[in-house]
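Office hours follow-up: a student asked to see two folded examples consecutively, so here they are.
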Amino acid sequence: QVQLVESGGGVVQPGGSLRLSCAASGFTFSNYHMHWFRQAPGKERQLVGTSTSDNRPLVQDSVKGRFAISRDNAKNTVYLQMNDLKPEDTAVYYCHVYHLSRNFWGQGTQVTVSS
């Protein structure tokens, strides 16, 4: 019954911004760390950032300074704010939670950065 639904992806020009959302249901959202991953064609899925249950934002060095992660527990939603987007950010972005010893993923949302 855990469900994660991403939205907010699209096509943007280099230097542009997007805000991704992940709406969660089926568990007590506020008790769990939430994660954003991305996967580019031909590459391994990689961690982008984490929002802890106490709302500590953690992003990987590769996107630090451009991306920010946050959550709104009242809305059961975790966000990924992406600024100064670069072509190498092009990927499918996935929301993730580790719940009761299982990994759950959203369907993914495509982000394409191209001029």
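And the second, which I mentioned at the end of office hours:
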Amino acid sequence: QVQLVESGGGLVQPGGSLRLSCAASGSIFTINAMGWYRQAPGKQRELVAGIRSGGSTNYADSVKGRFTISRDNAKNTVYLQLNSLKPEDTAVYYCNARIVRPISLTEFTYWGQGTQVTVSS
């Protein structure tokens, strides 16, 4: 009953930019936190950026100064602005959300389907 739908991935040249979006829908009471992870072939999944309900953010050292996470609480949507992209940013990017379900008020973690970001000349 909860779904995270991602969009915005694609192919860009080094130095280019993309904006990823992730919209949560379904039976949601509140969203405690949302974030972005990525996984490249042969590598483990890593946290890229996260944003908590209070607005605090955190970033992987490798993307600090280049990526920006933001949210629109009214739309249950999180964004990731990717600037100054490098080939090593190539990966499948996954949206993550910690969502409290109505009635039970139980927190669950949900994942989006993933969106491919490819940085290549």
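Two things to take away from it. The mean pLDDT is 96. The two ends are 40 Å apart (CA to CA).
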